[in-house]
């Protein structure tokens, strides 16, 4: 027996389709967990209960009329509060936009709604998607459902926390330096950063136009596959989006990883790794080896270029976007947000252009060498056991706090510069009871492959199914037979 | 103030009209010296026949 809110996204959609649950029952189950857990987590910025209940009733009426909207019919969702929905609040996590209502709706939101889902709120996030921890001065920090004094990861902090705390079946996040994979890892859920250009960014708050990506966080790899199939593809309103055909990602999930060559980098990704994280990585590899994969320890080329060039692109682009407010309203940003952007104004244009101009050649050199030897790369998503919010609080911490803060995203940023798809799945827990993430990356447009590996791993493990302690006091209503 | 920090702050003020909003901003701007060193270390180590080249083309050329 499981509660309705314990269902994965795919299970919830199937329950509505099979008549085992109504959309209103799913929504009520989400509300119950939200009301119990969210006061400890602060994972939401705004909620539209009335609008969500109207949408639930409408989709339930459509079920009776057999008017199926699509593969997410009747599933309530909430997203990082940077996806524009015409006329609805969209704070981007900042006091500077606390009352802002956009006039357009993001393409990805339109696609999810066309598939039958509806959005019930805006989720907490790092201010303007600019930190890897989940700190937020304007709306309050987001707290980890597994141990609230610890970070959720960011910037999609509320996306990770709400899915982990089971009051949201899936959430869109965004990923410019790890902002989907980090909260997925820290909150013990699954998240995928697609290939650069794979998903439209129309109607999505820009942070860095060269490195921003849209993708889902959800309970399982299968959930992410379903959403990716719906949201990927070219969008005329985002000319940078790729025309590459979109496969049915869910249909490729067969658990078969026989012959898969897994590369474990001996460079960069295991530098100063914590022992519990390394142990979890090795155990995860053993699970995949038992399914027929092979493991290869390899040195990665070009990492000095990847990390050096990758460190400046988003910094310069974010600084450029925010220049007017930095001149006129800098005091309204969180200290660490304005503090990080400030240095971006001193980076020479020649450095920035060099980093961009060499991105293609560096990718070619990296991919041609690495993916001739292995099919995927497996690394820890975060090298260390999770730090606390206090340990990484630049606004109130001593000099040097920024070093701990930046270390959180050391293993995710390289794949943003390279533009590669990468997924993070929960692969265990550290001694503080906090999740550990396994990151799997592959060639451009190999979303199907990384999701397949993640799904194969989840077939033999149960880490992704565990309930966080924050729900212990909450009784999940609406029970169905699993 | 360290001469490098002073130079960075003056450059930002002159070119962008932006002043340091807080102490972490000054500290993180001062850390740009590590960015300069990283770029210096890369000089002469990378030679590409196709430079500059389209990143989007490279994504498609190296796909599965």
Give the CA-based shape of chain A.
Answer: globular
Q: What is the count of DSSP helices of chain A, taking H or I runs of 4+ residues? A: 16
Structural class of the secondary elements of chain A?
A: alpha+beta
Provide the low-confidence segments of chain B as ranges.
none
Approximate helicity band of chain B? 55-70%
Rg calculated over all Cα atoms of chain B:
18 Å
Helix-strand string of chain A: EHHEHEHEHEHEEHEHEHHHHHEHHEEHE
Task: Give the structure's gist in a few sentences.
The complex is a heterodimer of chains A (482) and B (64). In chain A, strands 5-7-6-11-12-10-8-9 form an eight-stranded mixed beta sheet, sandwiched between helices. In chain A, strands 2-4-3 form a three-stranded mixed beta sheet. A two-stranded antiparallel ribbon of chain A has the order 1-13. By secondary structure, chain A is α+β, with helices and mostly antiparallel strands.
What do these coordinates show?
The complex is a heterodimer of chains A (482) and B (64). Chain A is α+β, with helices and mostly antiparallel strands and 482 residues long. Chain A has 16 helices and 13 strands. The longest helix of chain A is centred in the first third of the chain and has 19 residues. Chain B has 64 residues and is an all-alpha fold.
Explain the layout of strands and helices:
The complex is a heterodimer of chains A (about 475) and B (about 60).
Chain A: E1 2-3, H1 9-17, H2 23-41, E2 44-47, H3 49-64, E3 76-80, H4 107-114, E4 118-123, H5 157-164, E5 170-174, H6 181-187, E6 190-193, E7 214-218, H7 221-231, E8 261-265, H8 275-290, E9 294-298, H9 303-321, H10 323-328, H11 335-344, H12 349-357, H13 359-373, E10 376-380, H14 401-407, H15 413-418, E11 422-429, E12 435-441, H16 447-459, E13 479-480
Parallel strand pairs in A: 3-4, 8-9, 8-10
Antiparallel strand pairs in A: 1-13, 2-4, 5-7, 6-7, 6-11, 10-12, 11-12
Helix pairs in contact in A: 5-6, 7-16, 9-11, 9-12
Chain B: H1 3-16, H2 23-30, H3 32-42, H4 55-61
Helix pairs in contact in B: 1-2
